[in-house]
Design goal:
The complex is a heterotrimer of chains A (about 170), B (about 190) and C (about 150).
Chain A lengths: L1 H15 L5 H13 L1 H27 L5 H24 L3 H5 L3 H19 L12 E5 L4 E5 L6 E7 L10
Antiparallel strand pairs in A: 2-3
Helix pairs in contact in A: 1-2, 1-3
Chain B lengths: L1 H13 L3 H23 L2 H18 L9 H22 L21 H20 L2 H12 L4 H8 L3 H18 L11
Helix pairs in contact in B: 1-2, 2-3, 2-4, 2-6, 3-4, 4-7, 6-8, 7-8
Chain C lengths: L1 H23 E12 L10 H7 L7 E13 L4 E4 L4 E11 L2 E10 L2 E10 L4 E9 L2 E10 L1
Antiparallel strand pairs in C: 1-2, 1-8, 3-4, 4-5, 5-6, 7-8
The chains are: A mainly alpha (about 170), B mainly alpha (about 190), C alpha+beta (about 150).
Chain lengths: ~170, ~190, ~150
Protein backbone atom coordinates (compact mmCIF):
# COMPACT_ATOMS: atom_id res chain seq x y z
CA UNK A 1 0.00 0.00 0.00
CA UNK A 2 2.83 2.42 0.87
CA UNK A 3 4.74 1.75 -2.31
CA UNK A 4 1.58 2.16 -4.31
CA UNK A 5 0.89 5.48 -2.56
CA UNK A 6 4.36 6.90 -3.19
CA UNK A 7 4.20 6.12 -6.90
CA UNK A 8 0.59 7.31 -7.29
CA UNK A 9 1.17 10.58 -5.45
CA UNK A 10 3.73 11.55 -8.10
CA UNK A 11 1.08 11.13 -10.75
CA UNK A 12 -1.70 12.93 -8.90
CA UNK A 13 -1.10 16.38 -10.38
CA UNK A 14 -0.98 15.00 -13.90
CA UNK A 15 -4.12 13.01 -13.12
CA UNK A 16 -5.79 16.16 -11.86
CA UNK A 17 -4.75 17.95 -15.08
CA UNK A 18 -6.02 15.02 -17.20
CA UNK A 19 -2.55 14.43 -18.61
CA UNK A 20 -2.25 10.71 -17.77
CA UNK A 21 -2.69 7.67 -20.01
CA UNK A 22 -5.74 5.43 -19.76
CA UNK A 23 -3.72 2.81 -17.93
CA UNK A 24 -2.36 5.30 -15.41
CA UNK A 25 -5.85 6.69 -14.86
CA UNK A 26 -7.26 3.24 -14.03
CA UNK A 27 -4.42 2.58 -11.61
CA UNK A 28 -4.97 5.88 -9.82
CA UNK A 29 -8.76 5.47 -9.66
CA UNK A 30 -8.31 2.09 -8.04
CA UNK A 31 -5.83 3.48 -5.54
CA UNK A 32 -8.04 6.43 -4.64
CA UNK A 33 -10.91 4.21 -3.55
CA UNK A 34 -8.77 3.03 -0.63
CA UNK A 35 -6.42 5.97 0.12
CA UNK A 36 -7.74 8.91 2.14
CA UNK A 37 -4.43 10.78 2.00
CA UNK A 38 -4.31 10.87 -1.81
CA UNK A 39 -7.98 11.83 -1.91
CA UNK A 40 -7.20 14.75 0.42
CA UNK A 41 -4.31 15.82 -1.82
CA UNK A 42 -6.63 15.78 -4.80
CA UNK A 43 -9.27 17.72 -2.88
CA UNK A 44 -6.78 20.46 -2.00
CA UNK A 45 -5.88 20.79 -5.68
CA UNK A 46 -9.57 21.18 -6.51
CA UNK A 47 -10.03 23.81 -3.78
CA UNK A 48 -6.99 25.75 -4.96
CA UNK A 49 -8.31 25.76 -8.50
CA UNK A 50 -11.68 27.03 -7.29
CA UNK A 51 -10.04 29.82 -5.31
CA UNK A 52 -7.97 30.93 -8.27
CA UNK A 53 -10.60 30.45 -10.97
CA UNK A 54 -13.98 31.42 -9.49
CA UNK A 55 -13.35 35.20 -9.08
CA UNK A 56 -11.94 35.37 -12.61
CA UNK A 57 -14.99 33.63 -14.07
CA UNK A 58 -17.27 35.97 -12.14
CA UNK A 59 -15.37 39.04 -13.31
CA UNK A 60 -15.43 37.89 -16.93
CA UNK A 61 -19.17 37.13 -16.76
CA UNK A 62 -20.00 40.58 -15.38
CA UNK A 63 -17.67 42.51 -17.64
CA UNK A 64 -19.19 44.45 -20.49
CA UNK A 65 -15.92 45.85 -21.94
CA UNK A 66 -17.40 49.33 -22.32
CA UNK A 67 -14.66 51.23 -24.06
CA UNK A 68 -11.89 48.75 -24.87
CA UNK A 69 -12.49 48.34 -28.60
CA UNK A 70 -12.91 52.10 -29.09
CA UNK A 71 -9.42 52.71 -27.71
CA UNK A 72 -7.90 49.90 -29.75
CA UNK A 73 -9.59 51.25 -32.86
CA UNK A 74 -8.25 54.74 -32.25
CA UNK A 75 -4.69 53.58 -31.71
CA UNK A 76 -4.64 51.22 -34.65
CA UNK A 77 -6.34 53.74 -36.93
CA UNK A 78 -3.35 56.06 -36.46
CA UNK A 79 -1.09 53.22 -37.57
CA UNK A 80 -3.33 52.46 -40.56
CA UNK A 81 -3.19 56.08 -41.76
CA UNK A 82 0.61 56.01 -41.89
CA UNK A 83 0.75 52.86 -44.02
CA UNK A 84 -2.05 54.10 -46.30
CA UNK A 85 -0.03 57.23 -47.02
CA UNK A 86 3.10 55.26 -47.86
CA UNK A 87 1.11 53.09 -50.27
CA UNK A 88 -0.23 56.16 -52.02
CA UNK A 89 3.17 57.76 -52.20
CA UNK A 90 4.77 54.71 -53.73
CA UNK A 91 1.95 54.24 -56.25
CA UNK A 92 1.97 57.86 -57.45
CA UNK A 93 5.42 58.15 -58.92
CA UNK A 94 6.10 61.73 -59.90
CA UNK A 95 9.87 61.41 -60.09
CA UNK A 96 10.00 61.77 -63.87
CA UNK A 97 8.14 65.06 -63.64
CA UNK A 98 10.28 66.31 -60.78
CA UNK A 99 13.41 65.77 -62.84
CA UNK A 100 12.13 68.34 -65.32
CA UNK A 101 12.05 71.92 -64.19
CA UNK A 102 8.54 72.56 -65.45
CA UNK A 103 7.12 72.23 -61.92
CA UNK A 104 9.03 75.19 -60.54
CA UNK A 105 7.13 78.03 -62.19
CA UNK A 106 3.88 76.04 -61.77
CA UNK A 107 4.38 75.71 -58.03
CA UNK A 108 5.32 79.37 -57.68
CA UNK A 109 2.22 80.50 -59.53
CA UNK A 110 0.01 78.15 -57.48
CA UNK A 111 1.45 79.56 -54.24
CA UNK A 112 0.69 83.13 -55.33
CA UNK A 113 -2.87 82.20 -56.29
CA UNK A 114 -3.44 80.44 -52.95
CA UNK A 115 -2.10 83.42 -51.03
CA UNK A 116 -4.72 85.71 -52.56
CA UNK A 117 -7.74 83.46 -53.00
CA UNK A 118 -7.91 81.28 -49.87
CA UNK A 119 -8.51 84.10 -47.36
CA UNK A 120 -11.37 85.29 -49.55
CA UNK A 121 -12.94 81.84 -49.76
CA UNK A 122 -12.47 80.76 -46.16
CA UNK A 123 -13.27 83.63 -43.87
CA UNK A 124 -12.75 82.68 -40.25
CA UNK A 125 -15.76 83.16 -38.06
CA UNK A 126 -14.85 86.19 -35.97
CA UNK A 127 -14.74 85.43 -32.23
CA UNK A 128 -14.46 88.31 -29.85
CA UNK A 129 -11.55 87.73 -27.45
CA UNK A 130 -13.61 89.08 -24.58
CA UNK A 131 -16.29 86.40 -24.76
CA UNK A 132 -16.40 83.92 -21.88
CA UNK A 133 -15.88 80.18 -22.02
CA UNK A 134 -19.58 79.47 -21.50
CA UNK A 135 -21.54 81.71 -23.86
CA UNK A 136 -24.94 80.62 -22.56
CA UNK A 137 -26.55 77.70 -20.73
CA UNK A 138 -30.21 76.77 -20.27
CA UNK A 139 -32.19 73.81 -19.02
CA UNK A 140 -35.96 73.43 -18.85
CA UNK A 141 -35.79 70.72 -16.17
CA UNK A 142 -32.68 71.37 -14.05
CA UNK A 143 -31.03 74.14 -12.09
CA UNK A 144 -27.63 74.85 -13.59
CA UNK A 145 -24.38 76.04 -12.09
CA UNK A 146 -21.29 77.09 -14.06
CA UNK A 147 -18.00 76.92 -12.23
CA UNK A 148 -14.44 77.84 -13.31
CA UNK A 149 -11.94 76.66 -10.69
CA UNK A 150 -9.11 79.14 -10.32
CA UNK A 151 -5.79 78.53 -12.01
CA UNK A 152 -7.10 75.51 -13.90
CA UNK A 153 -8.13 74.89 -17.48
CA UNK A 154 -11.37 73.30 -16.38
CA UNK A 155 -14.94 74.47 -16.69
CA UNK A 156 -17.80 72.65 -14.98
CA UNK A 157 -21.45 72.93 -15.96
CA UNK A 158 -23.48 71.15 -13.30
CA UNK A 159 -27.15 70.19 -13.31
CA UNK A 160 -29.10 70.00 -10.03
CA UNK A 161 -32.43 68.67 -8.80
CA UNK A 162 -33.60 66.76 -11.78
CA UNK A 163 -35.42 63.46 -12.21
CA UNK A 164 -33.64 60.05 -12.09
CA UNK A 165 -32.38 59.06 -15.57
CA UNK A 166 -33.93 55.89 -16.88
CA UNK A 167 -31.39 53.11 -16.78
CA UNK A 168 -30.90 51.20 -20.03
CA UNK A 169 -31.82 47.52 -20.02
CA UNK A 170 -28.63 45.57 -19.24
CA UNK B 1 -13.67 25.76 -41.58
CA UNK B 2 -12.65 27.68 -38.50
CA UNK B 3 -8.95 27.31 -39.40
CA UNK B 4 -9.50 28.65 -42.92
CA UNK B 5 -11.48 31.60 -41.59
CA UNK B 6 -8.82 32.32 -39.02
CA UNK B 7 -6.02 32.14 -41.59
CA UNK B 8 -7.92 34.59 -43.77
CA UNK B 9 -8.43 36.91 -40.80
CA UNK B 10 -4.75 36.78 -39.91
CA UNK B 11 -3.68 37.54 -43.49
CA UNK B 12 -6.06 40.48 -43.66
CA UNK B 13 -4.86 41.74 -40.31
CA UNK B 14 -1.25 41.49 -41.49
CA UNK B 15 -2.22 43.75 -44.39
CA UNK B 16 -3.52 46.31 -41.88
CA UNK B 17 -7.24 45.51 -42.12
CA UNK B 18 -8.84 46.88 -38.96
CA UNK B 19 -12.09 44.98 -39.56
CA UNK B 20 -10.11 41.75 -39.39
CA UNK B 21 -8.61 42.88 -36.09
CA UNK B 22 -12.14 43.55 -34.80
CA UNK B 23 -13.18 40.00 -35.67
CA UNK B 24 -10.15 38.61 -33.89
CA UNK B 25 -10.94 40.87 -30.95
CA UNK B 26 -14.55 39.61 -30.85
CA UNK B 27 -13.32 36.02 -30.76
CA UNK B 28 -10.57 36.36 -28.19
CA UNK B 29 -11.05 39.38 -25.96
CA UNK B 30 -12.80 37.44 -23.21
CA UNK B 31 -10.05 34.84 -23.07
CA UNK B 32 -7.41 37.55 -22.99
CA UNK B 33 -9.34 39.30 -20.21
CA UNK B 34 -9.51 36.13 -18.13
CA UNK B 35 -5.75 35.65 -18.41
CA UNK B 36 -5.08 39.32 -17.64
CA UNK B 37 -7.48 39.32 -14.69
CA UNK B 38 -5.99 36.07 -13.45
CA UNK B 39 -2.59 37.78 -13.28
CA UNK B 40 -3.50 41.22 -11.92
CA UNK B 41 -6.86 40.47 -10.15
CA UNK B 42 -8.03 44.03 -10.81
CA UNK B 43 -10.74 44.98 -13.28
CA UNK B 44 -9.42 48.24 -14.66
CA UNK B 45 -5.84 46.99 -14.92
CA UNK B 46 -7.07 43.88 -16.72
CA UNK B 47 -9.01 46.02 -19.22
CA UNK B 48 -5.89 48.14 -19.85
CA UNK B 49 -3.94 44.96 -20.53
CA UNK B 50 -6.59 43.71 -22.98
CA UNK B 51 -6.37 46.99 -24.85
CA UNK B 52 -2.56 46.87 -24.95
CA UNK B 53 -2.56 43.25 -26.11
CA UNK B 54 -4.67 43.89 -29.20
CA UNK B 55 -2.74 47.03 -30.10
CA UNK B 56 0.51 45.05 -29.83
CA UNK B 57 -1.05 42.23 -31.82
CA UNK B 58 -1.84 44.61 -34.68
CA UNK B 59 1.73 45.92 -34.62
CA UNK B 60 3.45 42.55 -34.47
CA UNK B 61 1.13 40.19 -36.34
CA UNK B 62 3.32 40.44 -39.43
CA UNK B 63 5.88 38.37 -37.51
CA UNK B 64 3.42 35.48 -37.10
CA UNK B 65 4.49 32.83 -39.59
CA UNK B 66 1.88 30.18 -38.82
CA UNK B 67 4.42 27.73 -37.37
CA UNK B 68 2.53 27.64 -34.08
CA UNK B 69 -1.18 28.02 -33.43
CA UNK B 70 -2.47 31.57 -33.48
CA UNK B 71 -3.87 31.53 -29.97
CA UNK B 72 -0.46 30.58 -28.51
CA UNK B 73 0.97 33.64 -30.30
CA UNK B 74 -1.79 35.79 -28.82
CA UNK B 75 -1.46 34.26 -25.36
CA UNK B 76 2.28 34.89 -25.39
CA UNK B 77 1.64 38.57 -26.09
CA UNK B 78 -0.91 38.54 -23.26
CA UNK B 79 1.54 36.87 -20.88
CA UNK B 80 4.35 39.34 -21.66
CA UNK B 81 2.05 42.35 -21.49
CA UNK B 82 0.59 41.27 -18.14
CA UNK B 83 4.01 40.60 -16.63
CA UNK B 84 5.35 43.94 -17.89
CA UNK B 85 2.29 45.65 -16.47
CA UNK B 86 2.80 44.08 -13.07
CA UNK B 87 6.46 45.10 -13.03
CA UNK B 88 5.60 48.65 -14.09
CA UNK B 89 2.82 49.01 -11.51
CA UNK B 90 5.06 47.77 -8.73
CA UNK B 91 7.52 50.61 -9.46
CA UNK B 92 4.92 53.37 -9.41
CA UNK B 93 3.29 53.94 -6.03
CA UNK B 94 -0.44 54.25 -6.49
CA UNK B 95 -1.84 57.64 -5.60
CA UNK B 96 -5.37 56.89 -6.67
CA UNK B 97 -8.08 56.67 -4.06
CA UNK B 98 -8.57 52.93 -4.52
CA UNK B 99 -5.57 52.38 -2.26
CA UNK B 100 -7.05 54.47 0.53
CA UNK B 101 -10.10 54.18 2.69
CA UNK B 102 -10.14 50.41 3.13
CA UNK B 103 -12.86 48.12 1.84
CA UNK B 104 -15.88 49.53 0.12
CA UNK B 105 -19.09 47.61 0.34
CA UNK B 106 -20.89 47.07 -2.93
CA UNK B 107 -24.62 47.50 -3.32
CA UNK B 108 -25.47 43.86 -3.97
CA UNK B 109 -28.65 43.19 -2.01
CA UNK B 110 -28.27 39.40 -1.99
CA UNK B 111 -25.05 39.47 0.07
CA UNK B 112 -24.89 40.63 3.67
CA UNK B 113 -21.96 42.80 4.79
CA UNK B 114 -20.24 39.91 6.57
CA UNK B 115 -20.29 37.72 3.46
CA UNK B 116 -19.02 40.55 1.29
CA UNK B 117 -16.14 41.16 3.69
CA UNK B 118 -15.22 37.47 3.71
CA UNK B 119 -15.36 37.33 -0.07
CA UNK B 120 -13.19 40.44 -0.36
CA UNK B 121 -10.74 39.13 2.25
CA UNK B 122 -10.36 35.86 0.41
CA UNK B 123 -9.87 37.56 -2.92
CA UNK B 124 -7.20 39.81 -1.38
CA UNK B 125 -5.47 36.72 0.03
CA UNK B 126 -5.46 34.98 -3.34
CA UNK B 127 -4.23 38.15 -5.04
CA UNK B 128 -1.46 38.52 -2.46
CA UNK B 129 -0.44 34.88 -2.88
CA UNK B 130 -0.31 35.19 -6.68
CA UNK B 131 1.84 38.31 -6.38
CA UNK B 132 4.39 36.36 -4.36
CA UNK B 133 4.88 33.78 -7.10
CA UNK B 134 7.65 34.23 -9.65
CA UNK B 135 6.28 35.36 -13.02
CA UNK B 136 6.72 32.00 -14.76
CA UNK B 137 4.93 30.07 -11.99
CA UNK B 138 2.16 32.65 -11.92
CA UNK B 139 1.64 32.32 -15.66
CA UNK B 140 1.64 28.53 -15.42
CA UNK B 141 -1.10 28.67 -12.76
CA UNK B 142 -3.16 31.12 -14.83
CA UNK B 143 -2.86 29.16 -18.07
CA UNK B 144 -3.71 25.85 -16.43
CA UNK B 145 -6.23 26.71 -13.72
CA UNK B 146 -8.05 29.52 -15.51
CA UNK B 147 -7.67 28.86 -19.21
CA UNK B 148 -7.37 25.08 -18.99
CA UNK B 149 -4.51 24.82 -21.49
CA UNK B 150 -2.90 21.42 -21.86
CA UNK B 151 0.75 20.94 -20.97
CA UNK B 152 1.61 20.92 -24.69
CA UNK B 153 -0.25 24.18 -25.30
CA UNK B 154 1.39 25.76 -22.27
CA UNK B 155 4.82 24.69 -23.48
CA UNK B 156 4.17 26.31 -26.89
CA UNK B 157 2.85 29.49 -25.33
CA UNK B 158 5.56 29.84 -22.71
CA UNK B 159 8.36 28.73 -25.01
CA UNK B 160 9.63 25.91 -22.80
CA UNK B 161 9.50 22.11 -22.50
CA UNK B 162 6.61 20.13 -21.03
CA UNK B 163 8.86 19.12 -18.15
CA UNK B 164 9.45 22.78 -17.32
CA UNK B 165 5.70 23.43 -17.49
CA UNK B 166 5.04 20.62 -14.99
CA UNK B 167 7.77 21.89 -12.70
CA UNK B 168 6.45 25.47 -12.72
CA UNK B 169 2.93 24.21 -12.06
CA UNK B 170 4.02 21.96 -9.25
CA UNK B 171 6.06 24.60 -7.39
CA UNK B 172 3.46 27.29 -8.08
CA UNK B 173 0.68 25.17 -6.61
CA UNK B 174 2.80 24.16 -3.65
CA UNK B 175 3.62 27.77 -2.85
CA UNK B 176 -0.02 28.84 -3.25
CA UNK B 177 -1.17 26.10 -0.88
CA UNK B 178 1.36 27.21 1.73
CA UNK B 179 0.36 30.85 1.41
CA UNK B 180 -3.34 30.02 1.53
CA UNK B 181 -3.15 27.60 4.45
CA UNK B 182 -6.44 27.79 6.29
CA UNK B 183 -8.33 28.64 3.12
CA UNK B 184 -7.31 25.46 1.29
CA UNK B 185 -8.26 22.44 3.40
CA UNK B 186 -6.90 18.97 2.94
CA UNK B 187 -3.58 18.19 1.40
CA UNK B 188 -1.15 15.55 2.63
CA UNK B 189 1.52 13.25 1.42
CA UNK B 190 1.01 9.63 0.63
CA UNK C 1 3.09 74.70 -72.13
CA UNK C 2 -0.01 72.52 -71.78
CA UNK C 3 1.80 70.35 -69.28
CA UNK C 4 2.79 73.40 -67.21
CA UNK C 5 -0.81 74.55 -67.07
CA UNK C 6 -1.98 71.09 -66.09
CA UNK C 7 0.56 70.94 -63.27
CA UNK C 8 -0.40 74.42 -62.15
CA UNK C 9 -4.04 73.43 -61.95
CA UNK C 10 -3.13 70.22 -60.14
CA UNK C 11 -1.08 72.02 -57.47
CA UNK C 12 -3.78 74.66 -57.05
CA UNK C 13 -6.55 72.12 -56.50
CA UNK C 14 -4.47 70.03 -54.10
CA UNK C 15 -3.48 73.08 -52.08
CA UNK C 16 -7.04 74.30 -51.96
CA UNK C 17 -8.22 70.95 -50.73
CA UNK C 18 -5.61 70.70 -48.00
CA UNK C 19 -6.28 74.22 -46.78
CA UNK C 20 -10.01 73.67 -46.78
CA UNK C 21 -9.56 70.52 -44.71
CA UNK C 22 -7.44 72.40 -42.18
CA UNK C 23 -10.01 75.11 -41.71
CA UNK C 24 -13.29 73.21 -41.91
CA UNK C 25 -13.02 70.81 -39.02
CA UNK C 26 -12.02 70.45 -35.40
CA UNK C 27 -11.13 67.17 -33.73
CA UNK C 28 -12.90 66.84 -30.41
CA UNK C 29 -12.91 64.15 -27.81
CA UNK C 30 -16.04 63.20 -25.89
CA UNK C 31 -15.80 60.94 -22.88
CA UNK C 32 -18.90 59.77 -21.06
CA UNK C 33 -18.14 58.98 -17.43
CA UNK C 34 -20.11 57.55 -14.55
CA UNK C 35 -19.07 58.99 -11.20
CA UNK C 36 -20.38 57.49 -7.98
CA UNK C 37 -19.61 56.48 -4.42
CA UNK C 38 -20.03 52.79 -5.16
CA UNK C 39 -16.62 51.20 -4.82
CA UNK C 40 -13.35 53.10 -4.96
CA UNK C 41 -11.96 52.47 -8.40
CA UNK C 42 -10.78 55.10 -10.82
CA UNK C 43 -10.47 53.90 -14.38
CA UNK C 44 -6.76 54.30 -15.28
CA UNK C 45 -7.69 56.29 -18.40
CA UNK C 46 -9.61 58.77 -16.23
CA UNK C 47 -6.75 59.77 -13.99
CA UNK C 48 -6.59 63.19 -15.66
CA UNK C 49 -10.31 63.65 -14.95
CA UNK C 50 -9.85 62.55 -11.36
CA UNK C 51 -7.05 65.09 -10.97
CA UNK C 52 -9.28 67.89 -12.24
CA UNK C 53 -12.52 66.90 -10.50
CA UNK C 54 -11.25 65.12 -7.41
CA UNK C 55 -10.91 68.34 -5.46
CA UNK C 56 -14.39 69.54 -6.45
CA UNK C 57 -16.42 66.42 -5.78
CA UNK C 58 -16.30 63.60 -3.26
CA UNK C 59 -16.95 60.75 -5.71
CA UNK C 60 -14.84 57.70 -5.02
CA UNK C 61 -15.39 55.91 -8.30
CA UNK C 62 -14.96 57.08 -11.90
CA UNK C 63 -15.92 54.63 -14.63
CA UNK C 64 -15.51 55.28 -18.36
CA UNK C 65 -18.68 54.47 -20.30
CA UNK C 66 -17.51 55.61 -23.72
CA UNK C 67 -14.67 57.49 -25.39
CA UNK C 68 -15.19 58.94 -28.86
CA UNK C 69 -13.24 61.13 -31.24
CA UNK C 70 -15.50 63.39 -33.28
CA UNK C 71 -14.40 65.34 -36.34
CA UNK C 72 -16.68 68.37 -36.21
CA UNK C 73 -17.40 70.36 -39.34
CA UNK C 74 -18.74 73.89 -39.32
CA UNK C 75 -22.49 73.93 -38.71
CA UNK C 76 -22.84 70.19 -39.05
CA UNK C 77 -24.20 68.54 -35.87
CA UNK C 78 -22.68 65.33 -34.59
CA UNK C 79 -24.97 63.20 -32.41
CA UNK C 80 -23.89 60.51 -29.97
CA UNK C 81 -26.26 58.20 -28.12
CA UNK C 82 -25.29 58.17 -24.46
CA UNK C 83 -27.96 55.85 -22.99
CA UNK C 84 -31.03 54.16 -24.32
CA UNK C 85 -32.97 57.42 -24.67
CA UNK C 86 -30.41 60.15 -24.08
CA UNK C 87 -28.43 61.83 -26.82
CA UNK C 88 -25.76 64.52 -26.97
CA UNK C 89 -25.51 66.70 -30.06
CA UNK C 90 -22.41 68.80 -30.68
CA UNK C 91 -22.09 71.42 -33.44
CA UNK C 92 -19.07 73.52 -34.36
CA UNK C 93 -20.47 77.04 -34.72
CA UNK C 94 -17.28 79.04 -34.83
CA UNK C 95 -13.56 78.65 -35.13
CA UNK C 96 -10.51 80.84 -34.98
CA UNK C 97 -6.98 79.44 -34.83
CA UNK C 98 -6.94 77.68 -31.47
CA UNK C 99 -10.43 78.45 -30.26
CA UNK C 100 -13.44 76.36 -31.19
CA UNK C 101 -16.96 77.40 -30.29
CA UNK C 102 -19.33 74.49 -29.79
CA UNK C 103 -23.06 74.31 -29.28
CA UNK C 104 -23.90 71.35 -27.04
CA UNK C 105 -27.37 69.93 -26.62
CA UNK C 106 -28.24 67.04 -24.31
CA UNK C 107 -31.72 65.69 -24.84
CA UNK C 108 -34.08 62.83 -24.30
CA UNK C 109 -36.52 61.97 -27.07
CA UNK C 110 -39.06 64.73 -27.01
CA UNK C 111 -37.45 66.94 -24.37
CA UNK C 112 -34.28 68.96 -23.89
CA UNK C 113 -32.12 68.45 -20.83
CA UNK C 114 -29.48 71.09 -21.51
CA UNK C 115 -28.53 73.61 -24.16
CA UNK C 116 -25.21 75.39 -23.93
CA UNK C 117 -22.51 77.04 -26.03
CA UNK C 118 -18.89 76.75 -24.94
CA UNK C 119 -15.45 77.75 -26.20
CA UNK C 120 -12.65 75.23 -26.20
CA UNK C 121 -9.00 76.20 -26.32
CA UNK C 122 -5.88 74.00 -26.11
CA UNK C 123 -5.79 72.10 -22.82
CA UNK C 124 -9.26 73.16 -21.69
CA UNK C 125 -11.80 70.54 -20.74
CA UNK C 126 -15.45 71.35 -20.25
CA UNK C 127 -17.32 68.98 -17.93
CA UNK C 128 -21.09 68.79 -18.14
CA UNK C 129 -22.70 66.63 -15.53
CA UNK C 130 -25.13 65.97 -12.75
CA UNK C 131 -27.84 63.79 -14.30
CA UNK C 132 -28.37 60.72 -12.16
CA UNK C 133 -27.72 57.23 -13.47
CA UNK C 134 -27.45 53.83 -11.74
CA UNK C 135 -26.60 55.14 -8.31
CA UNK C 136 -24.19 57.75 -9.61
CA UNK C 137 -24.07 60.66 -12.04
CA UNK C 138 -23.10 60.99 -15.68
CA UNK C 139 -20.38 63.45 -16.65
CA UNK C 140 -19.50 64.42 -20.21
CA UNK C 141 -15.87 65.52 -20.70
CA UNK C 142 -15.35 67.57 -23.83
CA UNK C 143 -11.99 68.74 -25.16
CA UNK C 144 -10.54 69.73 -28.52
CA UNK C 145 -7.30 68.85 -30.27
CA UNK C 146 -5.62 71.71 -32.09
Amino acid sequence: MRNSCSSVSKLLERYFDQEVTGEESSLINEHLTGCISCRETLRSLVELRDLVKAPVEEAAREEDFPWVWQKIERETRLQEKASWWETLRSSVNLSHLLRKKVWVPAAALAAILIFFTVPLLFKETPLSPDRSIVEYVESPTYNVMVYHPEKTDTTVIWLFDGPEMESPAS
Amino acid sequence: MKDLNETDLILRCQRGDQDALKEIYDQYHEKVYRIAYGVVRHREDALEIVQDVFIKLFRTISSFRGKSRFYTFLYRITMNTAIDYVRKVKKIPKTIVEEEGGLQLSEEPERGPDRILLHKELEEKVKGAMEKLPADQRMAIVFREIEGLSYQEMAETMGCSIGTVMSRLHYGRKKMQELLKGYVKGGGEG
Amino acid sequence: MRRSLFLLLFFFIVSLFSVSVVHAQVQTRLRVIQASNIGSNVDPSLRDVYKKLGSLFSFTSYRLLSDQDLALHLNQPSTVQVHQEVFIEITLVGQQKEIAELRVKVYRKGSDILNTQVRLSPGRTVFIGGTRHRGGVVIYALSAQF
